[in-house]
Design goal:
Length: 316
């Protein structure tokens, strides 16, 4: 069994590749919920929805987020009457937020709601939130602290990044299925999808108990670099690394995760860095990591599984 940690769009692509190789009983996809927020009284889970829409094959590949063939009647009407229009909500997407909010208000946990949405979309693989508790990623910048959506959407990631902290994390515990998967005797590897290390993967690692559970699981931990040829495929990961003074390359990714990872999958473009990274005790696989098609996703997923099969957990 494999546990994959995923943020939104980057994570969803590798997770999708893994679903093409692994049976539903062989994979648990644990998703960041640090970006979740309440908007217009609806509970919005951007990363869970990116993974959900991708695995349901209804995601919009051109826009890069949301649902394909979306319409925007609600948004246009809202704008006309002076409503809050800084966060885009498509008509189809809105249905997810309304139904999720209804179920949460009824008393279901976020895990239960996510399971129900997966069933409705006929997704057989398990998508689980990192936690059922409400937590919020706060981005620290030279201009002050901002909740993730504020930094990302309103400020367009412009302020200089200095780090993150979380609201409500002390009381959080991992979602039951995530916790159980990390203890499952049939667990063979843990994958960090090519998601943003700071605002997608680190929030998952920061849920109390998760870091130790990963560290002690005794199985190799493999990351896929979200940085290719000195750039992020999308989003602020490269800018954040540069602002923290890290090399904007898979080397910086290796440095960031440090001893926690046993292997790193890097792109063909970065082949020259393989030796330096291996010298730090991390196993490296060089391959195409830019996922433009379902075939790319499955090939990368297979390479990631192959690397895991050749490695063992440090010290075990
Ligand atoms: P978000 O929450 O939607 O921003 O999604 P993630 O955190 O999961 O993914 C964002 C990260 O994924 C960015 O750092 C991108 O560079 C990376 N990414 C997106 N697509 C790809 C891809 O095809 N290959 C690789 N290696 N990284 C990708
Ligand atoms: Ca996200």
């Amino acid at each position: 069994m494999i546990v994959a940690l995923a943020g939104g769009v980057g994570g969803a692509k590798l997770a999708h590749g893994l679903t093409r190789i692994l049976d539903p009983s062989e994979l648990v996809i644990a998703v960041n919920t640090g970006d979740d927020f309440l908007h217009l009284d609806y509970f919005i889970c951007p990363d869970l929805d990116s993974v959900l829409y991708k695995l349901a094959d209804i995601n919009d590949t051109e826009r890069g987020w949301g649902i394909r063939d979306e319409t925007w009647n609600f948004m246009e009407s809202l704008k006309k009457i002076g409503g809050e229009d800084w966060f885009q909500l498509g008509d189809k997407d809105l249905a997810t937020h309304i139904e999720r909010t209804r179920r949460l208000t009824e008393g279901q946990t976020l895990s239960e709601v996510t399971r129900a949405l997966c069933q409705q979309h006929k997704i057989a693989h398990s998508i689980v939130p990192m936690t059922d508790h409400r937590v919020g990623t706060v981005v620290d910048t030279k201009d002050g602290d901002f909740f993730f959506q504020d930094y990302f959407v309103r400020l367009r990631c412009e302020p200089t990044f200095t780090g993150v902290h979380y609201k409500g994390m002390e009381e959080a515990v991992p979602a039951p299925q995530f916790k159980a998967a990390l203890r499952d005797p049939s667990l063979t590897a843990i994958m960090f999808c090519p998601s943003n290390p700071y605002v997608s993967i680190d929030p998952i690692l920061s849920v109390p108990g998760v870091f130790n559970a990963l560290n002690n699981a005794g199985v190799p931990i493999i990351a896929v670099s979200p940085i290719i040829g000195g750039q992020a495929v999308k989003g602020p990961a490269a800018k954040m690394m540069a602002e923290l003074g890290l090399p904007v390359s898979p080397r910086g990714i290796a440095q960031h995760y440090g001893n926690l990872i046993d292997g790193l999958v890097i792109d063909n473009e970065d082949v020259d860095l393989a030796e330096q990274i291996m010298a730090t005790g991390i196993g490296v696989q060089v391959t195409n990591t830019l996922m433009k098609s379902a075939e790319d996703e499955a090939l990368l997923a297979q390479e990631t599984l192959n690397l895991a099969a050749t490695l063992s957990r440090k010290g075990s």
